[in-house]
């Protein structure tokens, strides 16, 4: 019988409709306590971990107190395998379809975090067949796992080395504590606690321990006017090569140089690799290929024409279902509220579409890639800040990166492609390079627009521009009363340009990273191009059917109450 079925009593504590505990729960608790007391840990220390919903295996208590807590609060959720009490289980015995139980085998939430971080098991397994071990990081994993298990001092029942360090780092971040003050606090804690203890000696040691979890960020200096990044071959420059503005703030003191403007970039590749390292997401990264839906039903982007067209165009990429499909979203906001001084900050968010609909647009799988600093709207210069992300996307497409899939226990070369962007209409112009303002603002009609100028209103109008998209026999085309008076619509809609045709049009236009203050001749009269978008640097961008999407929230009114 499946172990979970044998232990259903763990979550059948209270008699339905009346007070009191079920008999099977009482018997089961006795069995659990007897099992835990038979382990070497209890024999040596005389206490066991309490798995109630309050203690969550973080506290050590005597068996009688553990029974009382279990009677009062019940077992913590999904503790089917008593791994905190000496029970060994095979690697990944949980059902991958049980989303509520995924995430593992960790003895506490910090162990679980370490397991998800590295995608490795602390339980020895016999590997055979096609099973492989992770390609690296094994020693780092076991060192961090040991930190998650070792008590802060002998007999400590509340914290481990890792949990204490993470709490202290969180306090430093929340209250903006100086590094020197942090050193003093850690030193005071170390002196106040029993010896020997595992309190980090200073901030450097604490940061060194936490950094093993990975997912760092890169600080990149920017031109104060947004002309360029001090990045790659320009990293040593002291002033902007376009506007001449100095890179650093002026200072008369002998101190480290402080940049006038800086962006933070969070590398994408390690975060995609983490999806395959975590049991809670690795299996689901193949959902788009393994879960077939009825023809004609669309419940996921993989059901759409754009996705299928990309698969046909690049069959080698599509043949590996673990290759990642991405979308990019961006919008501006004021971090200080509407009442404060005007300040525009632009986050760049990358979302993963391999996952099922219930997961792919949720917060854990929407990755903040970078934050474009204000205070001004970057407008067309948004491409300057997208350079690190585009470089990573090019690398992921051309060479890929060796990644360990914990669900199949295999190493594979992971590649990725950016399917489209999502934004409101003004940001559409920033990302695509076709300015969405003025008479030629429509990126579909382009120079074939039928917009006209309102003399009294003092602005352009697109009234009655939509009838050309109707079928030729539609009655609205001959309606002379309800649209422009006396006008019959006989024209055909403008042809939609394919990716290669658009690329041909913009191929002669410089990128904004090459000429920041570019002014295109004929702008607003024969075209609305402001730049050649940086997305055209992606080799496959011309083959995407849908390159830029509009967020429905910004263009459709809600249903009436």
Would you kindly provide a brief summary of this structure?
The protein is an alpha+beta fold. It has 18 helices and 13 strands. This is Transposase-associated domain-containing protein.
Could you characterize the architecture of this molecule?
It holds the Pfam family Transposase_21. It comes from Cuscuta epithymum. Helices cover 29% and strands 11% of the residues. The chain contains 18 helices and 13 strands. The chain starts with a helix and ends in a 6-residue tail after the last helix. The strands form four sheets. The chain has a seven-stranded mixed β-sheet. The model is unreliable at 90-107 and 122-129 (pLDDT under 50). The protein has 561 residues and is α+β, with helices and mostly antiparallel strands. Among the domains are: 1-87, no CATH class; 150-213, no CATH class; 218-265, no CATH class; 276-426, no CATH class.
